[in-house]
Amino acid sequence: MQFYSTNNKDIKVNIKQAVMQSLAADKGLYMPEYIPQMNIDFIENLSSFDLRDISFTVSKAILGGDIPENDLKEIVYKAINFDAPVVKISDQIYTLELWHGPSLAFKDFGARFMAGLMSYFIQGENKKLTILVATSGDTGGAVADGFYKVPGIEVIILYPSGKVSDLQEKQLTTLDENITALEINGTFDDCQSLVKEAFLDDKLNANYNFSSANSINISRLIPQSFYYFEAYKQIKDLGKEVVISVPSGNFGNLTAGILAKKMGLPIKRFIAATNINHIVPDYLDNGQYTPKSSIATISNAMDVGNPSNFVRLLDLYDHDINAIRKDVSGFWITDDDTRLALKDAYEKYQYICDPHGAIGYKSLSFLSDTEVGIFLGTAHPAKFLDTVEQTLGTKITIPESLAAISDKVKSAHYLEKDFTTFKKFLLER
Ligand SMILES: *Cc1c(COP(=O)(O)O)cnc(C)c1O
């Protein structure tokens, strides 16, 4: 399989280049040159496979020609070592819980698979790979965990001081070994600018072999298609048309779902669910794509004003908005309505969502009788402890893995947000 740049379909690279470069030289995002079709027998017999086998079969359809089967199998089995259960909320509403991995958010799927592929590709190379990543919260934890103790790779995480939750900060700053946390006196955007500037700096590039773990990397997209097959498997015996609602920020998760549908998975339609950063629902509504500065909300992983994977969405439909509208509808709510949705799910069905999942839950209020809906549970509610406990007026149980790190001692380097300071730090360490 070759991968082309969304800016120029004639520029093609192999999977190793696509993964190691992340972004094409013309700043386009990589896409598979064709979408493989899954065998009908595979779809009909999904129930006889577990999540790992499904993941391996789907990954083989995309990457089987490029990575020997046994190696690919090892990468997939190591990365996807936790479950993704579908849980019933009501007769018509289900949730796919994607937070059973180590960082308790769906980003574990992408980060762990990416870590596996990158460590596979650098085998035999003698220069250490340095992953630079800016995080507003969940990405950092998943990436840190995914690359923890991976030989030949170190990770430097930049996060905005005081702007990630306490538990998220602990996930970034308590690992040590090959993980370095930089607490930046600035915003997420400042962290991202520092990373971008470092990639362009000659002196730093002479000293470091940089790569990025950003969500635009194709190796984060591919594994996110696996669990749509798993979701369908768990719901198909109901004999209804399947609607999947995806709480969205940068739209990697939804794009992966559309990829699964185009590979032959019978999903009837998707809902692109957002908070008040409703750039894509507006686009679906009026045909205008107008990026804005992001606005802070209680579903902060979706506070994105210019979704990076939007170009992939367009690419999958050859820029035909009416074709997109057939498969995807938009939905968005405010923070107040998100709190009401959290309460509603809890009071009516005793189910505790996180604020992102609550938006997905709410979006499934308008299904037709022939449909059944699944919203993606993108994070464990304990990651957003204060919001959830205050809204529901009850204490929630913190999973052991989170409880364990809350006692650990934070280790981070505090840096001012100017590039000179950051560069000096990198050159002198
Ligand atoms: C990252 C994230 C999202 C948004 O996913 P995208 O793929 O960027 O659309 C939603 N919910 C949670 C909890 C996240 O961490």
CATH C-level class of the domain at 84-105 and 220-399 is Alpha Beta
Strand content: 15-25%
Largest sheet, if any? 6 strands, mixed
- What structural category do the secondary elements indicate? alpha/beta
Number of E-type strands: 14
CATH topology of the domain at 84-105 and 220-399: Rossmann fold
State the end-to-end distance: 39 Å
Strand order of the largest sheet: 4-5-13-10-11-12
The CATH architecture of the domain at 84-105 and 220-399 would be 3-Layer(aba) Sandwich
Fraction of residues in H or I helices: 40-55%
Topology:
Layout: E1 3-5, E2 8-13, H1 15-21, E3 30-32, H2 40-44, H3 51-63, H4 69-79, E4 86-88, E5 93-97, H5 107-121, E6 129-134, H6 138-147, E7 153-160, H7 166-173, E8 179-185, H8 188-200, H9 202-207, E9 209-212, H10 218-235, E10 241-247, H11 252-262, E11 269-274, H12 279-286, H13 310-316, H14 321-327, E12 328-332, H15 335-349, H16 355-363, E13 371-377, H17 385-392, H18 400-406, E14 413-416, H19 419-428
Parallel strand pairs: 5-13, 6-7, 6-9, 7-8, 8-14, 10-11, 10-13, 11-12
Antiparallel strand pairs: 1-2, 1-3, 4-5
This protein binds pyridoxal-5'-phosphate.
